[in-house]
C-alpha cells in the first residue's frame, strides 16, 4: 500500500524559508517521479515541482527561482526547499507520485496517490 507522509510545514514570516519533507513507502521510490503541489485557501490545486528518478527536475516558471526539489533515495524521501517565502505561498502542500510522462505534470486530476498535506502559512 502506498503511503506518502509530508512534514515540515509551519508559520513563517515573509522572506523566510522552510523545507518540507515527504516520506514514501509501498512502491519503488528510486524509480518513481515525485511531485509537490499546493492548494491555497479558496483556490484549486497548483503544481509546484517534480523530480524524476534520474534527477531531472521541473518547475513552473513562477517558482523556479525560489523553490528547489530534491530527493534522497536511501531515505525514500523527497524534499521541497522554499526560500524568500511570500504571503501568496500560504497553502497546504502535498506530495504525490508523478506521472511517467513529464508532459502530464500539470494534470493533477490524473494523479493517483497523494499525501495528507502539510500547512504552510506565510504572514507577518
3D structure, described in words:
- With 124 residues, the protein is mainly beta.
- The chain is 0% helix and 44% strand.
- It contains no helices and ten strands.
- It has strands at 3-7, 10-12, 18-25, 34-39, 45-51, 57-58, 67-72, 77-82, 91-97, 118-122.
- A six-stranded mixed β-sheet has the order 2-10-9-4-5-6, with no helix packed on it.
- The N and C termini lie far apart (40 Å).
SSE order and pairing:
Blueprint: E1 3-7, E2 10-12, E3 18-25, E4 34-39, E5 45-51, E6 57-58, E7 67-72, E8 77-82, E9 91-97, E10 118-122
Parallel strand pairs: 2-10
Antiparallel strand pairs: 1-3, 3-8, 4-5, 4-9, 5-6, 7-8, 9-10
Low-confidence stretches: none
Mean pLDDT: 96
Number of helices: 0
The radius of gyration computed from the alpha-carbon positions, rounded to a whole number of angstroms, is 13 Å
The succession of helices and strands, N to C, reads EEEEEEEEEE
What is the percent of helical residues? under 10%
Termini separation: 40 Å
Number of strands: 10
Biggest β-sheet description: 6 strands, mixed
Strands of the largest sheet, in order across it?
2-10-9-4-5-6
**Main structural class:** mainly beta
Strand content: 35-45%
Shape, principal axes of CA atoms: globular
Briefly characterize the structure:
Helices cover 0% and strands 44% of the residues. With 124 residues, it is mainly β.
Amino acid at each position: 500500500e502506498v503511503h506518502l507522509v509530508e512534514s515540515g510545514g509551519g508559520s513563517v514570516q515573509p522572506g523566510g524559508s522552510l523545507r518540507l519533507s515527504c516520506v514514501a513507502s509501498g512502491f519503488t521510490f528510486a524509480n518513481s517521479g515525485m511531485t509537490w503541489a499546493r492548494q491555497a485557501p479558496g483556490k484549486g490545486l497548483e503544481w509546484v515541482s517534480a523530480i524524476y528518478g534520474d534527477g531531472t527536475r521541473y518547475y513552473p516558471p513562477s517558482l523556479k527561482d525560489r523553490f528547489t526539489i530534491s530527493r534522497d533515495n536511501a531515505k525514500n524521501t523527497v524534499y521541497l526547499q522554499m526560500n524568500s517565502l511570500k504571503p501568496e505561498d500560504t497553502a497546504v502542500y502535498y506530495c504525490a507520485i508523478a506521472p511517467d510522462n513529464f508532459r502530464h505534470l500539470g494534470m493533477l486530476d490524473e494523479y493517483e496517490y497523494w499525501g495528507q498535506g502539510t500547512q504552510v502559512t506565510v504572514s507577518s
